[in-house]
Amino acid sequence: YQRDVDDAQKDQMREETEAERARSDYDRCMSSSSSSSSSSPCSSEKSRYESQQRDVDSKRSRVRSAQDYLRSARERVQRANESRGRAREDVANYSRRMREEPATIQKPHHERENYAVEIRSIDATVSLKLRAEGLVDKTTLLNDETFPLVIPPIRDEGWLARPATCPARGKRITLPNEETLRGELVKMTIATLREKVQAMYESYRTKFLADARRLEASGVPEDAVESYVRYLLTGLKNIDPKDGKQIGEFLRRTRGFGRIDLLGGL
Questions:
Q1: Can you tell me the distance from the alpha carbon of 249 to that of 77, in angstroms, rounded to the nearest whole number?
Q2: Beta-carbon contacts of residue 56 (< 8 Å; ≥ 6 apart)
């Protein structure tokens, strides 16, 4: 098909050359016979030129037809190459499966087996009893309040080995010892005690803030300054930024303190 296109293009070029030559002869004839009295001068040259032009159009049509055949043939070749590529992939996949697949396929065999399983669990509890009162006013904060601390049950299971049967290997029960449980209970007790003490201390601190705001609203700035300073000094790192900004502005107005951030060095 490519040779057909090449041959058709050569014929087209040859016919175009002949047509160009015929057109030149016709133009030359027309130029030299401008003064002729004949009614149809250069008729033979004109006929030859028109005939050559029709041949050129025919050759061009033949080139287009050959190119269409060539394009269709190339598409068929491309499809054939793609099909060949897919076929080669299939062959490679089947060959790999044949190499990897055992000659004898083992089928799983299921059989019911009964065996004893031992289940054990362990847990631990302790009760924390707290009694607390204020250092100044002796107000009772906690009156032998009990806080139960519990380690949830820890469960494990085990069974004996059964050689040549299922399960072939055994499993030992693994549970934490008493020392480990006591250690965990001590950690829980310390954390709970710390949490309760911090909560009571924070409640104690917030009273200074409430008293300071009440005194500020009542027009007693000197007493409000003292309560604000007590609130700051009893927990400078635990102050809400909004409260810190409001307290700082108040202390600057009343000249109680210049900068709150310097209180940490007192």
A1: 87
A2: 12, 15, 16, 19
Cβ–Cβ under 8 Å, residues 59 and 82: no
Q: Which two tokens stand for residue 106?
A: 């083992």
Q: Please provide the DSSP assignment of 145-176 as one string.
A: EEEEEEEEEEEEEEB---TTSSS-S-B-----
197 closest CA partner among 148, 140, 151, 132: 132
pLDDT of residue 35: 58
Distance CA 48, CA 60 (A): 18
Q: Quickly state the pLDDT bin for 93 (edges 50, 70, 90).
A: very high
Q: Which residue do the tokens 């059964």 mark?
A: 162
What b/e string do you get for 34-46 counting C-beta neighbours within 10 Å, with b at 16 or more? eeeeeeebbeebb
